[in-house]
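Question: Hello, beginner here. Any chance you could explain the protein record under this note? Any guidance would be welcome.
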Amino acid sequence: MATQTVNGKAFEYALLLEFYERLNKITSVSITENEPYHNAKGCFDSFVENEQDTFRITASAAINFLIDIEPRLSNGISKEDVLVLEIVSDQAGQTGDVRDVLIIRSLQKWEIGISAKNNHRAVKHSRLSLNIDFGEKWLGVPCSQNYFDEIKPIFDMLANLKASDKSTKWTSIENMHQVVYIPILDAFRKELLRLDKENSSIVAENLVQYLIGNEDFYKVIKGNKKVEIQAYNLSGTLNLPFENIKPKARIPKLKLPSRLIEIVYQDNSTTTLLVSLNEGWQISFRIHNASSRVEPSLKFDINLVSAPHTLFTNHIFIA
């Protein structure tokens, strides 16, 4: 398993552990010991004690804050109102749910989710290839035949290189940016603009929902000596009161974009497009080859460059 993944899973386990430690004295709590739980625990256990402590201290700082803004974490209706803590399998991400840790009170028909990140902020790693209809997959609107006709010669060339010699490296393609990246990005840019023009009311909104998921959640980002908490409150399910107990801070609803403003290359870049939308959203798409050997597909590293000022963000510094 890659270091990034191990760190991420260990942090998920630390969050679960700290939630349990903090809340089991004041309310009924249970942990779902499923396969993802054992996997995350194994990752956490692979660290030495002082590294485990760092994960736990960071998780604990985030949780203190979440308890203040989510009264239902510490308040149950009765003994039977159990707070269930669960780590989600990675498969959920494919269906547009980015949450790693779920906290559920089924008696209150309430749940919140947390996306746990360790030192990184990428939102998605999506692929492009000749048989991937990104329009259909991401936006619910299929790409045109023109788009596939435009990318076909490039992906065919890559498929032929691989077929003639499986060990062909990307570095053996001369002017790779000019012959592979730029034409693919140009076709992608043209198609995204076309899809938006023909389905103007939905493309911008669906793009952001594809990237940040279709469920409200908190993103907890573990940094060096600090933790950042962002609240993606799209449907207004976060920050609810419990009976007459109100949250200690107010989290605004997040506005989704309704139109695409422009798509341009990042300054001096042949690999990255910047997509600007209204309501203050901007997303970067950096194209790259996922492995050192040539294959007829490419990967995007997709990042949120800027979010609306209504995105609630809190930084907690840890001594």
Observations:
- The two ends are 30 Å apart (CA to CA).
